[in-house]
Input
Amino acid sequence: MDGLLKDKVALITGGAQGIGLAIAHTFVEHGAKVVIADLEQEAASKAASELDGEATGVACDVRDLEQVEAACQAAVTAYGSLDVMVNNAGITRDATMRKMTGDDFDVVMQVHLRGTWNGTRTAAAIMREQGHGAIVNVSSISGKVGFIGQTNYSAAKAGIVGLTKAAAKEVAFKGVRVNAVQPGLIRTAMTEAMPQKAWDAKMAEIPMGRVGEPSEVASVALFLASDLSSYMTGTVMEITGGRLM
Output
């Protein structure tokens, strides 16, 4: 199969559903061999089996560095290299500061920020030896502006931006690029479960007047993963329909 990622090997964390799964589909369509890493082996394997191309699933808790290292090694063992890493795994534990528990704060920081650091660190180590590679970190518009009830999530997603820029400076000379995306309101199972009042309030902030689709985030991830963005590193690309620009 010809495509922008022909013969490239990509690992996507949190790839069994939502935006991660959309990225997996898009990457396979463009010729990549994909490893889906997700918390549950069954979900990862099922998602991989439904992709129209070479793909495999591995269990991985991104909070655990050893599990992330094992997932990356699984990609190299199965397909011979690791060319693209997408750090997408995430959770929410929304609550106002007054009601948020310390555990709610810690687990969100661990999954998003520590998980992204684990993935970036591990993938970069492999990629710098290869002399090439692209890492795409999934932040959020919440990391740019902050939302009520998301002091944990906003802090973690803002942290991913700083991590991305610092990591990009460290590995650029080795041919490894590190960029981030900041999706806004995207149609997923999580967002569609929001109360109508919350949905309407968010829609009112979007100049394009519509919600984004997971495939639209995947297209930007494809751009950053491919040679189309060969002279870009340390950048943050908003995918928001113009929301809060």
